[in-house]
Specification:
Chains A, B: Pathway: Cofactor biosynthesis; thiamine diphosphate biosynthesis; thiamine diphosphate from thiamine phosphate: step 1/1. Chains A, B: GO terms for molecular function: ATP binding; magnesium ion binding; thiamine-phosphate kinase activity. Chains A, B: Its EC number is 2.7.4.16. The structure is a homodimer. The first copy, chain A, is α+β, with helices and mostly antiparallel strands and about 350 residues long. Chain A has two domains: about 140 residues, 60s Ribosomal Protein L30, Chain: A (2-Layer Sandwich); about 170 residues, Alpha-Beta Complex (Phosphoribosyl-aminoimidazole Synthetase, Chain A, domain 2), CATH 3.90.650.10. Chain A has a six-stranded mixed beta sheet, sandwiched between helices. In chain A, α3 links the parallel β4 and β5. Chain A is globular and about 60 Å long. Chain A starts with 11 loop residues before the first helix and ends in a 15-residue tail after the last strand. Chains A and B meet through α1, β2, β3, α2 and β4 of A and α1, β2, β3, α2 and β4 of B.
Chain lengths: ~350, ~350
Amino acid sequence: MVAHTTIGELSESDLLARILPVFAAGKGAGRGVLVPPGDDAAVLATGGSVVVTTDSMVRGMDWRDDWSSGHDVGLKLVAQNVADVAAMGAVPTGLLIALAAAPATSLDWVVDLTDGIAAGAEDAGCPVVGGDLSSAPEGVVIVAVTAFGDLEGRAPVLRSGARPGDVVAVAGSLGWSGAGLALLLAGEAGPSDPRAGSERKAREGSVERARSLVTWFHRSPRPPWEAGPVAAAVGASSMIDLSDGLVRDGGRIAAASGVELALDERVLRETFLAGVVADAVGEDEGWRQVLSGGEEHSLLATFPPGAVPDDPSAPWTVIGEVVEAGAAGPRLTVGGAEPSVTGWDHFAG
Amino acid sequence: MVAHTTIGELSESDLLARILPVFAAGKGAGRGVLVPPGDDAAVLATGGSVVVTTDSMVRGMDWRDDWSSGHDVGLKLVAQNVADVAAMGAVPTGLLIALAAAPATSLDWVVDLTDGIAAGAEDAGCPVVGGDLSSAPEGVVIVAVTAFGDLEGRAPVLRSGARPGDVVAVAGSLGWSGAGLALLLAGEAGPSDPRAGSERKAREGSVERARSLVTWFHRSPRPPWEAGPVAAAVGASSMIDLSDGLVRDGGRIAAASGVELALDERVLRETFLAGVVADAVGEDEGWRQVLSGGEEHSLLATFPPGAVPDDPSAPWTVIGEVVEAGAAGPRLTVGGAEPSVTGWDHFAG
């Protein structure tokens, strides 16, 4: 067995010396960063306002080391924070990283996490502008990311602006992350990466490929965050990042806007269930995941009729319409009825 | 024994319903907040740039429940983040809170933490604009705070601007927090609050009062963050928040600026050691804490001669001068020699 260096064997400054260059090398670094990492705080250029959000991941709760690498966790942290910025209609401009880790945490893992964050940050075009390191109790690793965004003069797209007559559309997948988690929980899929081809994969059938694909979506999602500013620019009336599932998050738009989101069951089944998700987990479980699977980080938005963006690089799928709330009050319906599934709750599970 | 409600017994939305109103009631809320908590992200008004920083506290590492209440932890989190903003010369404009806590965490403790954060935020005049809740493994509570600040048109005050001929000054205490921690570690002082007078306290002598005072400074510091923007306005050449001790953080200014910070031992002893700190922990331990005690969050700055602010509400004490770096390179000296003490390191201890 190889003895790995732990972060407790390094001084804080030695550990920072390993981490900071990874972020400094990012292509996004410097653009709009008036004061870079290394002082008491960073300073970002802004255009009259700044979008701010934070989202954390906890080892053993939000990821398992046997399913996700540090690189996966880093990519996912960036994805979920950038998706929140995008859901306001903003482009990401910077990230802060707060890592609390037990001294026995392997340095290799932290470097892998750092690489994943840096790769995600570069993909999103936003630099890591600072952070914080804390020592944590044995076994504990928690990473909190704060993301900043620039609306570039656009009004922020809130959850409360959906109006009867608008259409409902989604950019990105539905149920893929949840289906991947379901497979991992059932022990029916390993964490192999479908992007890294292998002889074994070549021999596998479509079901196996589907399973690999959805587990990859769970481990390191890459939501179409570019669709957020595009939607804002064309006048999206409301928008939300799908972190807790279509039913729960769509219900939040309905509640905030005082309307009913009437979704089309046929379109949802044909677009998001048929094929990969049904192959991977079957029709019943797949449908449950399309409706309620969490951590997808796709964007759900409403648009005035005819305003849905026609963007081949981040396509929107129309899945329903906004109607007046009836006697049952603001709600989300699928095929005319409220789905019996709900969504993810961090404490009650 | 009373059975306390744990946060695991509540849904995430129920828990948020207990927490959010506390922040919404803060007097700072609304000022400059274009989009308040409740959407994917908050939006803050800015003046062309935004100062951003993050700092975390970990239960068992950064506080002990038998010494610090949730309210103490909340106040301290705000203090250390706002001090970082102030050390850039900015006024605080908003906070984000990321709480990762085990489901068995008592709701009372979380409410107490929330009250402490809200009290600190109100004192600092900046609203809590959002946050994140995560479930954590048994026994774990970690709170990561991100703070935002506005330079109000001033240039940021960096660590790198100290020039030979400048004077070195500090706003706030030196060694009080460290002396308080030393007493708590030695088991020689309880967590009683010197602000809450009692008959017992009235009977205590000056040593006991000193001990209570320094433990209070450790538990819930209130650094003079207002001094930061004032220093920036009068042309401070460099500034830093003293979180890791005078020697270590002053050394950071010396290194970043390529100069020597030559501190006056007599002034340091007379101003910061004599009296409370010496009474509380004795001359030798007190001197060690003045030089190297962490978590003080006072501001250390350099000013052109004659520019030190004369502000009775947040007074600056001149403690030395900036001189050309000699053969030994950039460094901090006290009475002409490099102190043998260093400062706090989060991982190596």
